[in-house]
Automatic annotation (TrEMBL):
One Pfam family this sequence matches: Amidase
Gene3D superfamilies, sorted: Amidase signature (AS) domain (3.90.1300.10)
Domain Amidase: 146-388
Organism: Kalanchoe fedtschenkoi
PANTHER family listed in its UniProt record: AMIDASE FAMILY PROTEIN, TRANSAMIDASE
Protein's name in the database: Amidase domain-containing protein
GO molecular function terms noted in the UniProt entry: glutaminyl-tRNA synthase (glutamine-hydrolyzing) activity
Domain of life (superkingdom): Eukaryota
Length: 584
């Protein structure tokens, strides 16, 4: 007699003569019960071992005959191409809190930078703000071609040690710079970004250049698509000089070309996948750069590299043409020299992207006209108190504050959301076994295999818990903003799930751990975060501008060329530098 069970999607194979016999019927029944027992063990992985064996047999039959064909049809329809650039989910997250003013406001009124003079030293030029450089260009003290050459030279000089650039867009840069100079010569000025060089995280598509996503699997791919954020910057006259490092598939700082280093301490890594934008802005290799965050990919590298940055309200900046991890978490934002520059860049790149269902016209007020003396700002136990004291001296009502919510496993909610969404965008990548080629096997490969085991019902329950978190944060937000640690993982997860904007604010420097010599100039950057409610980015910007108006922490320059006695870096820098290993 033949009695056999084969495969996960099992079929019972029984001889025709056996089916006609009593013994055969008993064998079939026995096999089904054995099969049900095997599946019951598997159901434990889903915390769903609640069914009788007869019900399990019924479930397996329905899944085989109905579910799997639907899975395969959907995969064929939308999941055979990686990256999530097409066919976005129609389930759209809106972080807006009801009951508050939702009136659209116009563009910001940028402050004038009168009396700016061109420095003699190119390094001094490299560390000028966007507004200062814009004034040099507008007053014709420098051309965009000259600026572009300065920043390309710096990128090529320091990239061998920082490992922060994927692709130089030199030909495009000089073409855009030439056009900017010609427009200005004809009397046409496009605004504060006219002729200003910048860099893009290499998950953002630009025609004619590779968009590698930091992964050796995709390092040769190109798109004809112009990402929406690139279009906005191009229309403003900005000059793209480089595609900057993203951690592989936007996870941490490891990519197919190496691992990006912190300019303040070159033995240390940047952490976070917006590694290139943070490192290059910190080191004066670009005046500003565009990065992205799903969960810490802007806040961590900005804090590590001592850069001012804003993670804006979810939906502020359109994401068409950008690799997607999670359509309800991904955000684009600028790394800059100052909060003023962040305000300028955000103003230019914000707006409704018609091809991004989650992007909106966020009703931001002008941060340059906010009266901070009318604000009440809370500070958490882990806030940098210098910021609290400075803002109090500027007339802000500063009060102790606590974040209170009952939702547990906030980090788990974020992981469920991020990992399942990411797997939907890289389903084919996993099914093809390409995850075995991934640069860091303890990162996406492990997380996405685990994500395969998250049932749809539990993903939805996680979103319901997220909704409860949003409600509790909204009800407990009794201040106009609050100050607290910007790299605390619980706050990173909470802030991203709720869609809160946050400013990363440099507040000082401390000595590094185990320095090579007592006289080393290497430092550890100290930062804090200024958090605001959704669509109140202007409040966080205004408070940061007020703090930076009387402090100079954001103006400090990392010691790439001057590490101190007994601690030197070759000139030009070399790649062979000892390293410690850091993880996000």
């Amino acid at each position: 007699m033949l009695c056999q069970i084969v495969g996960f999607r099992s079929r019972t194979i029984v001889s025709s003569s056996l089916l006609e016999s009593k013994n055969g019927s008993e064998c079939v029944k026995k096999m089904k019960m054995t099969e049900a027992s095997q599946y019951k063990a598997a159901f434990k992985l889903f915390d769903a071992d609640i069914f009788t064996e007869n019900k399990i047999v019924e479930i397996v039959k329905g899944a085989t005959e109905l579910n799997i064909p639907i899975f395969r049809a959907n995969w064929k329809a939308v999941a055979s191409v990686n990256g999530g650039l097409h066919d976005p989910s129609v389930l759209v997250f809106n972080p807006e809190w009801g009951g508050k003013e939702n009136k659209h406001h116009g563009k910001f009124e940028y402050p004038s930078e009168h009396g700016v003079k061109r420095p003699e030293n190119e390094e001094d030029i490299a560390y000028m703000t966007v507004l200062e450089l814009g004034q040099l260009i507008r007053s014709k003290q420098i051309t965009s071609m000259e600026l572009t050459e300065i920043f390309l030279k710096r990128l090529k000089r320091y990239n061998p040690v920082l490992e922060a650039v994927v692709t130089y867009t030199e030909e495009l840069a000089y073409k855009q710079a030439k056009k900017a100079d010609e427009l200005l010569a004809s009397g046409e000025y496009l605004g504060p970004l006219h002729g200003i060089p910048y860099g893009l995280k290499d998950i953002i598509a630009v025609p004619g250049y590779k968009t590698t996503w930091g992964s050796k699997t995709f390092k040769e791919q190109q798109f004809d698509t112009e990402a929406w954020v690139y279009k906005r910057l191009k229309a403003a006259g900005a000059v793209l000089v480089a595609k900057l490092v993203t951690g592989s598939l936007a996870y941490d700082d490891i990519w197919f070309g190496g691992r990006t280093r912190n300019p303040w301490n070159i033995e240390e890594f940047t952490t976070g996948s917006s590694a290139g934008p943070a490192a290059c802005t910190s080191a004066g290799l670009v005046p500003f750069a565009i990065g992205s965050e799903t969960a810490g990919s802007m806040t961590y590298p900005a804090a590590r590299c001592g850069v001012t940055a804003i993670r804006p309200t979810f939906g502020t900046v359109g994401r068409t043409g950008v690799m997607s991890i999670s359509e309800s978490l991904d955000k684009l934002g600028p790394f800059c020299r100052s909060a003023k520059d962040c305000a300028v860049i955000l103003d230019i790149i914000r707006g409704k992207d018609p091809d991004d269902l989650s992007s909106r016209e966020i009703p931001l007020k002008d941060p340059f006209s906010v009266d901070i003396t009318k604000l009440t700002v809370g500070y958490l136990d882990d806030a940098e108190m210098e910021v609290v004291h400075v803002l109090a001296s500027k007339g802000v009502n500063m009060v102790p504050y606590e974040l209170n919510y009952t939702v547990e496993r906030v980090q788990g909610i974020l992981n469920f959301t991020m990992d399942v969404d990411m797997l939907a965008h890289f389903d084919e990548w996993q099914r093809d076994g390409k995850d075995d080629e991934y640069e860091a096997q303890d990162q996406w490969p492990v997380e996405l295999r685990r994500a395969r085991m998250v049932p749809a019902v539990d993903y939805i329950q996680a979103q319901r818990a997220r909704g409860k978190l949003v409600k509790e944060i909204r009800e407990g937000f009794t201040v106009d903003a609050f100050i607290g640690n910007v790299t605390d993982w619980e706050k990173v997860c909470m802030g991203n799930l709720v869609g809160l904007p946050v400013m990363v604010v440099p507040t000082g420097l401390t000595n590094i751990w185990q320095p090579h010599s007592d006289d080393t100039n290497r430092r550890t950057s100290v930062t804090t975060g200024i958090y605001a409610p959704p669509s109140r980015d202007h409040i966080a910007l205004a408070l940061t501008m007020a703090y930076q108006s009387v402090t100079d922490h954001h103006k400090q320059r990392p010691p790439i060329d001057d590490l101190g006695p007994g601690d030197s870096i070759p000139n030009p820098p070399l790649v062979e530098i000892p390293a410690r290993r850091f993880y996000l």
